[in-house]
Amino acid sequence: MPVWLGDAGGPEQLAPENIAIALSTSLYFAEHEKTARHMLRRMSPTIDLPSLEIHRMDKDTDEQDVQRYMSLLRTRDGVMLSEAGMPAIADPGARLVAAAHRAGLRVVPLSGPSSLLLALAASGLNGQHFTFHGYLPVKPDERKQAIKRLEHEAQRTGAAQLFIETPYRNDAMLAELLRTCQDRTLLCIAMDLMQPTAFVRTRTAHEWRQMHTELGKHPAVFILGARP
Amino acid sequence: MPVWLGDAGGPEQLAPENIAIALSTSLYFAEHEKTARHMLRRMSPTIDLPSLEIHRMDKDTDEQDVQRYMSLLRTRDGVMLSEAGMPAIADPGARLVAAAHRAGLRVVPLSGPSSLLLALAASGLNGQHFTFHGYLPVKPDERKQAIKRLEHEAQRTGAAQLFIETPYRNDAMLAELLRTCQDRTLLCIAMDLMQPTAFVRTRTAHEWRQMHTELGKHPAVFILGARP
User: Fold this and answer.
1) Among B148, B173, B180, B219, which one has the highest count of C-beta atoms within 10 angstroms of its own C-beta?
2) What is the pLDDT of residue A221?
3) Does B97 contact A124 at a Cβ distance shorter than 8 Å?
4) Which of B119, B69, B86 is nearest to B221 (CA)?
């Protein structure tokens, strides 16, 4: 189940139907038990937390534990909670889902916030054809090459090119984008989505260069696009 | 603003906060006025429909109308309603959003169902790196080539490859996928998402071939992936 984004979010940003489904079981999978408990209590202030079973599912969870989770799920419905946004999208939960398919279990997705799709919908860039690349390389040379490759791909195919960055590197990423990209290339930056400080701005690289923007350390999605 | 998927959906599948925002204005943009009115009435049974301004925004809307919409939006907030799922993702609304950015207007995305992200989250395939291709070519030869290209791309990069098909061609698409794909290639089919008949199934091409599945004419998302 997807969860609200950031500290300013809350259960009023989720669909009541999904909250009801999330609370209809006592079996949960999450990256961090503590935040999962906190989120469940916000969804239902009277929830009996000690009666819940919350299992850790993160990148270090070994295959044996995943198989143990499968045997639990053979007899009971379980809910996977994300830390923020959609689970199993840029999130270690995908391994649990893949194992569920191999075990022949039914998987039901629940809708909710996804910073990638929110950014793309609000960017005005190509929603008919797009690629999400996760994180670009950190080393300056490789990062520059990656940006050039994405820009070329946007020009060649028209597809929007999405990527994310660790918040403390936002301004270094923006500087590199503005050093590297051609004047006409479109760059969208979507920051602090679903927070009071949210902004989504799509401008040409040329326009961004004249704006001298400082992003600061906020969660951000970057999108490169070509003018149609 | 995103809207529920399919006939079985409804406002209980949207976040109360988003419904409140959607109802806080009287200026709307939508592909079809009639379905927009229907959805707004479902969000608020007592809404005064005659007092609302609903403007058509579809693929045939000309640039002059888009500019007229911009002048309305300079003095009032407007809400763009989709027909189903996220607006401006595989939907003509992106042009209105792009024009808003060029006009320097503020664009705020609202979260909600997106069949693409729901399918990907529930597929167990690679959510860290994926491409959405829209529709593949209709001509059999070109379609076969496109499938081969996507399969190769999934194997080369590990990225999940998403596409959609017109419902009445689902079974022809599945047949072509099963004729073309290698045994080990993973294929996820996500159908009728958020409907009582929903299913999401990820299997190898080899396994699908043995299942003799008939999809029928339902909205579906197809995803090709490589085994990690």
Assistant:
1) B173
2) 97
3) yes
4) B119
Question: Tokens in use for B62?
Answer: 């000309």
Residues 6 or more apart in contact with residue B146 via CB below 8 angstroms: B133, B136, B137
User: Does this chain's domain B11-102 share its CATH topology with B115-225?
Assistant: no
Closest alpha carbon within chain A to B133: A129
Q: Cβ of A18 and B17 within 8 Å?
A: no
Looking at residue B11, what is its pLDDT?
87
Best CA proximity match to B1, nearest among B110, B106, B116, B83: B110
Closest residue in B to A226 (Cα–Cα): B98
Sketch the domain layout of chain A as residue ranges: 11-102, 115-225
Pick the CATH number of B11-102 from 3.40.50.1450, 3.40.1010.10, 3.40.50.2300, 3.40.50.300: 3.40.1010.10
The domain covering B115-225 belongs, at the CATH homologous superfamily level, to Tetrapyrrole methylase, C-terminal domain (3.30.950.10)
CB-CB contact of A76 with B83 (8 Å): no
Q: How far is A110 from chain B (nearest CA, A)?
A: 7
Contacts B134 to A, Cβ<8 Å: 128-129
- Nearest Cβ partner of A91 from B127, B131, B199? B127
Nearest residue, CB atoms, A86 vs list B94, B121, B198: B121
In this prediction the ipTM stands at 0.93
Cα–Cα dist B97/B95, whole Å = 5
Is the distance from CB of B223 to CB of B120 less than 8 angstroms?
yes
Nearest chain A CA: its distance from B22 CA (Å): 13
Minimal C-alpha gap between B35 and chain A (Å): 20
Write out pLDDT tens, residues A50-98: 899 999 999 899 999 999 999 999 999 999 998 888 888 877 889 999 9
The whole-model pTM stands at 0.94
- B206 contact partners, CB below 8 Å, separation of at least 6: B183, B184
Q: Phi/psi at B28 (nearest 5 deg)? A: -130, 155
Interchain contact, B111 vs A13, CB within 8 Å:
yes
